[in-house]
Amino acid sequence: MNVEIKKLSPEFxxxxxxxxxxxxxxxxxxWAGCYxxxxxxxxxxxxxxxxxxxxxxxxxxxxxxxxxxxEGKLQGYLxxxxxxxxxxxxxxxxxxxxxxxxxxxxxxxxxxxxxxxIKSIVCYSIAPSMRRKGIASQLLKSVCEDALKEGxxxxxxxxxxxxxxxxxxxxxxxxxxxxxFSLHKNLDDIAIVRKYL
Length: 197
Description:
Layout: E1 3-7, H1 13-23, H2 43-55, H3 60-71, E2 76-81, E3 84-93, E4 118-126, H4 135-149, E5 154-157, H5 173-178, E6 182-187, E7 190-196
Parallel strand pairs: 4-5
Antiparallel strand pairs: 1-2, 2-3, 3-4, 5-7, 6-7
């Protein structure tokens, strides 16, 4: 099976939307419509969503994802097999995620130097029919290679500790071990793992 990894850009918006509309959550309808904007969420967007729901119209999160891809705020990698997206990894500069800022997650900033450039991995989504075929590993490999080229000090991720749960979208702890990440800190039910570059 030939897997091609492409860095998300405006050129691939239609592929991205089609993946989230038709493939990503066919086995998990509860998460359908996320468009992977969760970690960019803030109070201002929550208020916009309320107003949007009252006025009707198309999906707010879908439109937000398109806007953020065009602006370069939503970043990551798409995995293709035979020209069809079968996987996604949301990876970006840590400062791009509102949910990971110091106010919301102070524990993520202890022991960190403000001058360090940190790439954060916040989500994986693999098509149900393509799971356990090494797609996530290929996505992570691309994140690591590009983060090194882009001058990041380290890559950080937040896998769940213990039983696999709905928070498993962060990726399993084992995948990070395989790529040379080490445990930085336990924070409640998640681990902070880091790979220094």
